[in-house]
Amino acid sequence: MNKLTIILIGIIGISLMFSGCVSDASKTGTTTTTETPTLVVYSCGGPTEALQEVNKEFEKKYNCKVEFTGASAGTLRKAIENGAYTDVFLPRSISHSEILTNESLMEPDYKIYQFTEWVIITPKGNPKNITKLEDLLEKDVIVYTNSKATIPAIKALKPEKELIEKIYEKSSKDYDCYRKMLDAVVDRKCDAALVERRCITLEGIKGNVEVIDIPREYLDIQKGVFTVGVMKNSKEKDLAYKYKEFVLSDEGQNILEKHGFYPVKSKKGNELLNNYYSEYKELTPAN
Fold first, then answer.
1. What is the CATH number that goes with domain 118-218?
2. What is the 3-state secondary structure of the chain?
3. Which of the four pLDDT bands, split at 50, 70 and 90, describes residue 29?
4. Where in the chain is the domain with CATH 3.40.190.10?
5. How confident is the model at residue 2 (pLDDT cuts 50, 70, 90)?
6. CATH code for 3-22+37-115+225-283?
7. Which GO terms describe its biological process (predicted)?
8. What is the per-residue pLDDT across 243-277, written as a single tens digit (0 to 9) for each?
């Protein structure tokens, strides 16, 4: 049994457990107090910290419980296709929501809710004066990578695959955990690393690294956008739509921005939409 199969079985089991809960009162006719509604939410792993804060505020606002699972969007989509239960799905990319909609598993009114990008980070002061990706190929520049991450830079920056592959080949140390790599940059053990922008907002990292932008054109278009949609078989359809609306509300969007993302309703989000995702404008909250 391979790793993916084990993950899928685990997700399906948990989902069925939550979706199968019923009150004994419905069987015996006895009267009980109303149970707190539970909303099952699946998301790709990247926005986990941001969505945990969103979930906390949503639970307070609607007096409910959010059961949250963060994992690879592709793995979660396969789980859903194989029977796993969720009320809401927030994958990285537009394609996962398109596929689930075409399979009649997701409601067709899914929306783009935020964007992301990759950056170069260096220790405070940028001792090697790095200004662009090509500088990472210099012999005296020590680069750390994290090729075993769910979405490493080598996948995200696919349009510049040849350059990124050279950087990875030059890597002095490769990590299976981006957090360890981030700490190494802060501790000045290397000169540079490639990370998703959200990482620079994490505790211990924020304010302790220098950030150099990478041209947006270098980013795989599907790796830079996130969608939110309600599932067709949701047993909490009204609450699921309230969750979607909350993610797209000013309160939800402000939380996402605080965690290093570009909310779709922000000035930067609108700029990215017009310049790189104009064909998907019908997927924005205003439409």
1. 3.40.190.10
2. CCHHHHHHHHHHHHHHHHHCCCCCHHHHCCCCCCCCCEEEEEEECCCHHHHHHHHHHHHHHHCCEEEEEEECHHHHHHHHHCCCCCCEEECECCHHHHHHHHCCCECCCCEEEEECCEEEEEECCCCCCCCCHHHHHCCCCCEEECCCCCCCHHHHCHHHHHHHHHHHHHCCEECCCHHHHHHHHHCCCCCEEEEEHHHHHCCCCCCCEEEEECCHHHCCHHHHEEEEEEECCCCCHHHHHHHHHHHHCHHHHHHHHHCCCEECCCHHHHHHHHHHCHHHHHHCCCC
3. very low
4. 3-22+37-115+225-283, 118-218
5. low
6. 3.40.190.10
7. molybdate ion transport
8. 999 999 999 999 999 999 999 999 999 999 999 99
